[in-house]
Design goal:
heterodimer, A: mainly alpha, two-stranded antiparallel sheet, 62% helix, globular, B: alpha+beta, Beta Polymerase, domain 2, 6-stranded mixed sheet, 30% helix
């Protein structure tokens, strides 16, 4: 029914807008936390949440809200695809776009693993929210952990944050 | 200005130069880096602001991205990076101050790839 389809599309747009706006809000909080030298777990947590919601905004707009799984495992697969979409459109130089997408791909996997629900088949229990038991039996606490596999002081984070903002803003109106 | 303040000022600018050189190592499309003024040397909590000109970046205006201080790696101040394209930089040079966060910032020392 045409009117039913139109209503479903409007609902999907609303969901995408909601995810996008929350992603932008998460990024704003990451900025505040970084400026105030908050613990790394909190800076990474808001980066992970922003990345996840930007991915969901994109997927909902493309596939519909009902077809987007309720999972945290979106970032590693979808962020590089979103990067390809935005960078290839906004950049006439293919080698630059390729460089940007490769940087995003490397970061996206590590950021996805920051969510407690994403543990790489129980191989990676480190996460930005809850204490976990290390392989040596010691209990690790996020606010005291160094997260050695991801450097949020690295220059490449600039690229990632700009991508998340670009994607989120595209779906926020 | 006291000797201590002078030392701090030099340290802040030196940190900016060291960061810029580190960024040149990892970002092949970074053309040059401009340190924004004023540096507010007396306030160690006030970030160093680097305007980084990157070939091919998406043009989105002035979009500050914050980084925490990292004393373990010799970065004693928070840092803000604003990435813009060469075309955007040309516009800044013609039209005056960089505006973000309800403040105007002037172009300071320009650091080129060594």
């Amino acid at each position: 029914m045409p009117s039913g389809k139109s209503n479903a599309e409007a609902i999907d747009v609303s969901w995408a807008r909601g995810y996008a706006r929350q992603a932008l809000s998460d990024l704003r909080i990451r900025e505040v936390l970084a400026a105030e030298n908050a613990e790394k777990c909190h800076r990474l947590h808001f980066l992970q949440m922003a990345a996840e919601k930007a991915c969901k905004a994109h997927l909902v707009s493309q596939n519909g809200h009902e077809n987007v799984r309720k999972s945290h495992a979106y970032i590693a697969k979808n962020l590089p695809l979103i990067a390809r979409h935005f960078y290839s459109l906004g950049n006439s130089n293919a080698s630059i776009a390729q460089w940007e997408i490769e940087q995003i791909r490397v970061l996206a996997r590590e950021i996805e693993l920051l969510a407690p629900a994403c543990d790489d088949g129980d191989h990676r229990r480190d996460n930005s929210e809850y204490p976990w038991e290390g392989s040596d039996g010691e209990i690790r606490t996020p606010c005291e952990y160094s997260f050695p596999t991801i450097d949020d002081g690295d220059r490449s984070i600039v690229r990632l944050i700009r991508l998340i903002r670009t994607a989120a803003e595209a779906y926020s109106h | 200005m006291s000797e201590l303040e002078t030392a701090r000022r030099a340290s802040k600018l030196e940190t900016a130069k060291r960061l810029a050189n580190a960024h040149f190592q990892v970002e092949p499309h970074l053309k040059f880096v401009c340190v924004l003024k004023p540096l507010h040397d007396q306030d160690p909590k006030d970030p160093i602001r680097l305007l980084e000109v990157v070939e091919g970046t998406i043009e989105r205006g002035f979009e500050p991205i914050a980084f925490a201080a990292d004393p373990a790696r010799g970065i004693d101040y928070p840092v803000v990076i604003i990435e813009i394209s060469p075309e955007e930089y040309s516009s800044v040079q013609k039209n005056g101050p960089v505006r973000f966060g309800n403040h105007d910032w002037d172009l300071g020392e320009e650091i080129a790839r060594a």
